[in-house]
Design a protein that fits this description.
FAD/NAD(P)-binding domain, globular, six-stranded mixed beta sheet, alpha/beta
């Protein structure tokens, strides 16, 4: 294999970031996406300073920062509107070295896609890993259009990853957390509000403004796996959250049923033995799906992509590169999967005494200063990539 060819399975945020980063390192990259187009599944995404620093490596950090909308204060509230904790955008940026950027997933996908040649991304190409490869032979990926041989294959095919199942068939896979989520993007209400996440008994709600004048809303609640609301998901949100504080009722009034996305939350609480096998590596939800309670799922996929490209220098033996990638990423992401699970349990407490104790603890910590609450993200959003910016490919 004289050419350094890489095939990325999956054109989500992690897969596209990996393609851009690997190409900047000298790889000839092809992205195979099962869907007919790149219209992203989902609504908004929060990119923290750790992901923005990773995007700096491939020259996309500042274009994303241009979408930052959060200024002033925000925080955590009770369903009646009382503030449990206040946070400040400037204090958070000062502590972690940059802003938190909320943007629509479609915007991020467009930025990543525009950094690749048009021919590099092939949609409508369902891919099956038929051979993970080894030091003596290439990996092989089969599509309806033919077979791709590559020195490196990257499985970025999401939480139900077929690539992961092929590499580690004995692994139990994702487990249901007991929670379901709803997400939508709606026009901003006439009356202004501060960004917030509201924790109630057994459920939570978040309202986050986007720079384009819309609001990204998300909710999470305990529910049986696979359940669906017979009257529609908007009606279910009205039942669960319609009596909560402003702007929740106004945002729900602006929501339209087709735009309300509902997904059960699964996570890989059982860590994989490695993030690679043969010439094939995993990243993002395929490697370490986590609950959304830390807002780090997409951020960690971006970290993965840049760290993988850092180690996968075309002049370095690939077994060494992939072993180093696993050593870098598996401990960090396994810890975050566990931390997100603990946060999820805390956020969705339902017993009244437990909720009262939680709220009192959050309020007391907030009164001691914003730094105490922000400290919970130390070691998460202050991460820095192992390399500086790449030269343009």
């Amino acid at each position: 294999m004289e050419q350094h060819r890489a095939v990325v399975v999956g054109a989500g945020i992690g897969g596209l970031t990996a393609a851009v980063a690997l190409r900047a390192r000298g790889w000839d990259v092809t992205v195979l996406e099962r869907a007919a187009g790149l219209a992203p599944v989902g609504a908004g995404i929060a990119l923290a300073p750790n992901a923005l620093r990773a995007l700096d490596v491939i020259g996309l950090g500042d274009p994303v920062r241009a979408h930052a909308a959060w200024q002033g204060d925000g925080g955590m509230r009770r369903p009646d509107g009382r503030w449990l904790a206040r946070t400040d955008a400037e204090a958070a940026a000062a502590r972690f070295g940059g802003p938190l950027v909320l943007l629509h997933r479609a915007t991020l996908v467009d930025l990543l896609r525009s950094a690749l040649p048009a021919a590099a991304v092939r949609t409508g190409a369902a891919a099956v890993l038929t051979d993970p490869g080894d030091p003596r032979r290439p990996a092989r990926v089969t599509t309806p259009g033919g077979v791709h041989e590559a020195e490196l294959v990257v499985g970025a095919d999401g939480i139900r990853s077929a690539v992961r199942a092929a590499l580690f068939p004995a692994h139990p896979g994702p487990r249901y957390t007991g929670y379901t989520t709803w997400r939508t993007v709606v026009p901003a209400p006439a009356e202004p509000f501060a960004p917030h996440e509201t924790w109630g008994p057994g459920r939570l709600w978040g309202s986050q403004p986007l720079k384009d004048g819309r609001v990204y809303t998300y909710a999470m609640a305990a529910a049986p796996e696979g359940a669906r609301a017979p009257g529609g998901e908007r009606a279910e949100l009205l039942r669960l959250f319609g009596a909560w504080h402003h702007p929740v009722p106004a945002l729900l009034a602006a929501a339209e049923e087709p735009g309300v996305l509902r997904h059960d939350v699964h996570h890989l609480i059982d860590p994989l033995p490695a993030f690679h096998h043969g010439r094939t590596a995993l990243l993002g939800d395929a490697a370490h799906a986590m609950q959304p309670t830390l807002g780090q799922g997409g951020n960690q996929a971006i970290e993965d992509a840049v760290v993988l490209a850092h180690h996968a220098d075309p002049g370095r033996p690939l077994p060494d590169a992939l072993a180093a990638y696993t050593a870098d990423r598996l401990p960090r992401t396994a810890a975050l999967v566990r931390k997100a699970a603990r946060t999820g349990r805390l956020a969705t407490l339902s017993a009244r005494p437990a909720v009262s104790l939680r709220n009192a603890a959050v309020t007391a910590a907030s009164r001691l200063g914003p730094g105490l609450l922000l400290r919970g993200f130390d070691g998460v959003v202050d991460w820095r990539p192992p390399t500086g910016p790449y030269r343009p490919a």
